[in-house]
Recover the amino acids of this structure.
């Protein structure tokens, strides 16, 4: 029994399992592409284009005298952000709580399921359609139902975030765990490695790039769902502010919240980009 | 030179037969293959690509069971991975997420024993890899990666070294260099080495005995004893003696599969494409 590490498969070196790129919902291109500005010329070009776009918008909105309820000027938005930040901040806090709690639950369950399910091909076949359903169904649609059951507090939002981020983490992590390199497993086995050691020291590191991609996509989906759920119902959170501000035509504040959300999304991306650089750089 | 009659058999393969279950029915990989390697001997198995050489070696390593027959190490049956067996895989097979130092300590991590630092230091120095400890596999050339793999296999001081077409993916010059290095290490350590290759010249250069395997299903076709003096030099490869021997082995391999030589030839590039 301990003898057959290959499950009767033929050790062939020409046929490796496909690399992670493009096999999951997202490849590793997110880590490989970009890579930051390289020199002064590039940096100045990037800054100048940004200035041109924002400055151009500012100029256009002012010169064309576009009313504030249609589109406030960038400077007005930034001013609103600073002036009203004290008022918006608690709502940001609520959104972050929902995101962190929901995402932690969803990602933990997603990772665990991915690790377990991929070890049993039959179980995977049985579960796959439901996972796909969870991934493709907008969990926002469940929020009114969840609100009926749990009220207007954190609970329905946290559940929605977990339901949105969990499957995203799972489906990508599963792609990672499914990558099996017989030669590497045989290598570990040749030193007498147990199944658990192989899981810990071969399968997890091999899956790591896709796990990180999954965690990133899951976090971003979690943020989207948190805000969406807040827009559906309840009296707090950034999503709730969006509906309130637009209803009261407070467009500078509305866009200030949008700005906060984009910054949050970018921070999530950068965080996982750095994690990927540290833990999965060998892949890129 | 080491195949003196008195030397005991270190490694014995008895009537090895192996079938794989594939979607298109069972695949007969090895058929009734027997061989023995003496203690301290350098033995090569040559054969066309896809003939079951790697299957044989993986069975000897205890990595997958034979359908029939057995493998004996010092008279004891090998039923699973064995601490006295070190293995060098195709394409080095280093773990890309570990640097060189951590790759070489990997066996000790699995065995949960402290690494033999002095021995590892000596081996690294021996293969010329001192100072590369922080490099990752992708930062090393193919030859350097394979040197590291050799150090990894020898790090826990096994008495038998199995080498599975270790230099197949290397260019001819690097391959020569590696062959010289392997012979040197063998002369120093006198490990029992079982070396798999489809390169006949390489087999002749390294071996005390060459075991020729026929096309799938792999059968033992013939055994050649190589009497060239040690240490061997690349110049020897240019002699008529070696040239004739290589041709004789080549003829042996090509004559065995009767008519369907072309059919088997089409399966063969599997290992050659690598690299």
């Amino acid at each position: 029994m301990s003898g057959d590490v290959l499950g009767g498969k033929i050790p062939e070196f020409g046929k490796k399992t496909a690399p992670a790129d493009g096999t999951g919902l997202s490849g590793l291109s997110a880590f490989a592409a970009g890579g930051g500005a390289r020199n002064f010329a590039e940096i100045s070009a990037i800054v100048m284009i940004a200035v041109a776009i924002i400055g151009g918008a500012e100029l256009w909105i002012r010169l064309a005298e576009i009313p504030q309820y249609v589109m406030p000027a960038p400077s007005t938005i930034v001013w609103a952000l600073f002036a009203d930040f004290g008022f918006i901040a608690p709502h940001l806090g609520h959104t972050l709580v929902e995101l962190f709690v929901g995402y932690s639950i969803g990602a933990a369950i997603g990772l665990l399921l991915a690790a377990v399910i991929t070890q049993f091909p039959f179980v995977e076949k049985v579960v796959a359609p439901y996972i796909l359903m969870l991934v493709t169904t907008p969990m926002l649609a469940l929020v009114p139902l969840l609100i009926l059951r749990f009220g207007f507090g954190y609970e329905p939002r946290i559940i929605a975030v977990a339901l949105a981020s969990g499957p995203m983490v799972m489906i990508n992590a599963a792609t990672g765990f499914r990558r099996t390199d017989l030669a590497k497993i045989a290598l570990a086995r040749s030193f007498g490695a147990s199944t658990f050691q192989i899981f810990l020291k071969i399968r997890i590191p091999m899956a790591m790039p896709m796990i990180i991609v999954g965690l990133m996509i899951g976090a971003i989906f979690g943020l989207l769902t948190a805000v969406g759920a807040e827009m559906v119902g309840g009296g707090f959170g950034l999503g709730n502010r969006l509906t309130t501000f637009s209803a009261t035509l407070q467009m500078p504040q509305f866009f200030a919240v949008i700005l906060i959300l984009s910054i949050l999304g970018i921070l999530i991306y950068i965080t996982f980009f750095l994690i990927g650089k540290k833990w999965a750089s060998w892949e890129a | 030179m080491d195949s003196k009659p008195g030397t005991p058999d270190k490694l014995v393969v008895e009537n090895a037969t192996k079938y794989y279950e594939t979607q298109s029915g069972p695949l007969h990989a090895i058929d009734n293959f027997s061989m023995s390697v003496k203690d301290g001997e350098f033995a090569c198995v040559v054969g066309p690509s896809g003939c079951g050489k790697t299957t044989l070696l993986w069975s000897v390593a205890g990595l997958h069971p034979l359908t029939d027959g057995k493998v004996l190490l010092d008279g004891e049956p090998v039923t699973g991975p064995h601490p006295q067996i070190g293995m060098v895989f195709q394409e080095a097979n280093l773990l890309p997420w570990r640097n060189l130092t951590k790759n070489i300590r990997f066996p000790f991590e699995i065995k949960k024993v402290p690494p033999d630092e002095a021995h590892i230091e000596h081996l690294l120095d021996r293969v010329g890899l001192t100072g590369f400890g922080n490099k990752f596999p992708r930062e090393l050339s193919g030859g350097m990666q394979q040197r590291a793999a050799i150090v990894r296999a020898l790090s826990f001081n096994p008495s038998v070294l199995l080498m599975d077409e270790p230099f197949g993916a290397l260019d001819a010059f690097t391959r020569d260099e590696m062959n010289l290095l392997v012979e040197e290490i063998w002369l120093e350590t006198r490990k029992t080495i079982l070396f798999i290759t489809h390169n006949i010249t390489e087999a002749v250069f390294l071996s005390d005995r060459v075991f020729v395997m026929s096309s799938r299903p792999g059968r033992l076709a013939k055994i050649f004893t190589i009497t060239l003096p040690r240490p061997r030099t690349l110049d020897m490869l240019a002699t008529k003696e070696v040239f004739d021997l290589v041709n004789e082995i080549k003829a042996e391999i090509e004559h065995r599969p009767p008519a369907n030589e072309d059919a088997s030839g089409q399966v063969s590039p599997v290992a050659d494409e690598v690299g």
